[in-house]
Amino acid sequence: MKIILALLLAFPSMTFASDKVFRLHLATEPGSLDPNKQKTSASSYLLGNLYRNVFTFDDKAGLVPDLGSSCSRDKKQVLTCKLKKDLRWSDNSTLTAEDFLRTYKKILDSKTAAPRADLLFKIKNARDIYLGKAKMTSLGITTPDALTLRFEFQEADPDFEYNLASFLLAPTKSDLSAYSGPYKLAEWKKGQKIILLPNNSYHGGHASRPQVEFLFIEEDTVALQLYEKNELQFLRRLPTLFIPSHKKRPDFHWIPVTRLDYVGFGPELKDREDLRRAFIYSLNYVELQKIFSSEGRPGCVGVPDSWFPEKAPCYDFDLKKVTKGLSNSTYTFMFSSLGGEDHKRATEWMQNQWIKNAGLKTHLEAKENKVYLQILQKSPPALFRKGVSPDRPTCLAALETFAPESPENYFRLKDPEYDRILSSLAQARKSAEQKKWCQAGMDFLMQRHLWIPLGGIHFSMLAKPEFTGWKINQMNQLDLSNLH
């Protein structure tokens, strides 16, 4: 891949065959195209356009019918969803409720090793089936007919409809031979790119959707050079160094996203709250905000203020709360190389702040993303940088990031009080009550000094104006169904 990129950069006159192709990039090549087995969001832009679910999510309209037509709950909190008529896979075979049910069973089969099987755990017997304690036939999902899905819940799950907008639970064919989204796979050139063509069996979208190509480009600066040469039509992430000089350009887009970006503390610091406090309060968050041209202030929880009674909680730079000389050890601070130069700059800045303001020494380690996630799952380092997009645009989804069964719970948090907060939030119906429990959950994380939130996130993107109709929502989901 590096050879290919070198050739592209060495020959500025090099052009592609068609000017009607929409090209963008992925930082890493996908391991597979099975949406039910995805562990990270690295391939979400690709998979979200190959596979669709009952709904899509729109920032203004909320949940919008996609493969489904409607969902409703009865007094017993049984959810019934109706699918649209005449749904077809990309191979023109019929897509029915049975395809959804078969996929749910696949996800709950522990042999599948689906990383987000927990999204189904509040359905009757789903968790026990996954753990091998109940038979698949007892699952609380049924298909009364070819167009109907019926979900029976074991515990309250007011957000479940949002799960039905995620490609992680999208129906798949057992051999992955066909697709349900606005695009279908045309060719996968290993190490180079994936080529998509419009799926004419998809029920909606623009009639003249262009061919789409995803190139595999690890470095954001390389991707930017290709964009400026018109060899990419969409740049998914503009490095922060370039934001001031590009912000007034007509092709610049500043996209607010609901994310939890943070520095977490691993098991090595579990019993050292004094050290965690020193790491937290020795960072000059206002200075960091200026360095990265961010709108959200680091030190604050990066979710909407509207989720709280007043506003999201924050840490402040406060050296009075820092005790120096707490340790002579050197602590590993690990991050994913997928974050590019921005993450490298941020971690180096934090390293300097900690040694200057708290006398705390750190060793920086950048790891390839797949290796990094394996390390977090098995043995998290003392400090690690992580970002996660909640599955739904709700506080419950954000807080469930650190629930005991969540694969993102790298804190290894397991606390009855936190579980009670999650349960209370799940059962809250009134807005004021939801905000109260949202505040309680975030206060739990903040007051115990379990993390360093990095503030609200905006993605800086570039898009060629000759293409329109693409849409990115606050969940960082890219919809190309109306691209033209």
Explain the layout of strands and helices.
Elements: H1 2-10, E1 21-26, H2 44-50, E2 55-58, E3 62-65, E4 68-73, E5 78-83, H3 97-108, H4 126-130, E6 141-145, E7 148-152, H5 160-163, E8 183-189, E9 193-198, E10 211-216, H6 220-228, E11 234-235, H7 243-246, E12 252-257, E13 260-265, H8 273-281, H9 285-291, E14 330-336, H10 340-358, E15 361-367, H11 369-378, E16 383-388, H12 395-399, H13 416-427, H14 431-447, E17 451-453, E18 457-463, E19 471-472, E20 478-479
Parallel strand pairs: 1-10, 14-15, 14-16
Antiparallel strand pairs: 2-3, 4-5, 5-7, 6-7, 8-9, 9-10, 11-18, 12-18, 13-16, 13-17, 19-20
Helix pairs in contact: 13-14
Q: How would you characterize the overall build of this protein?
A:
The chain has 484 residues and is an alpha+beta fold. It is 27% helix and 21% strand. The protein contains 14 helices and 20 strands. The strands form six sheets. Strands 15-14-16-13-17 form a five-stranded mixed beta sheet. It has a four-stranded mixed beta sheet with strand order 1-10-9-8, with helices on one face. Strand 14, helix 10 and strand 15 form a beta-alpha-beta unit. Helix 13 packs antiparallel against helix 14. The two termini are 29 Å apart.
Q: Concise description?
A:
The chain contains 14 helices and 20 strands. It has 484 residues and is of the alpha+beta class.
Would you report the number of β strands?
Answer: 20
Unreliable sequence segments = 1-18
C-alpha Rg (nearest Å) = 23 Å
Q: What is the CA–CA distance across the termini?
A: 29 Å
Oligomer: single chain
Q: Would you tell me the overall average pLDDT?
A: 92
- Main β-sheet description: 5 strands, mixed
Strand percentage lies at 15-25%
The shape, in one word, is globular
> Strand pairing plus helix content: what structural class?
alpha+beta
Sheet with the most strands: spatial strand order: 15-14-16-13-17
Individual helix count: 14
Percent helix among the residues?
A: 25-40%
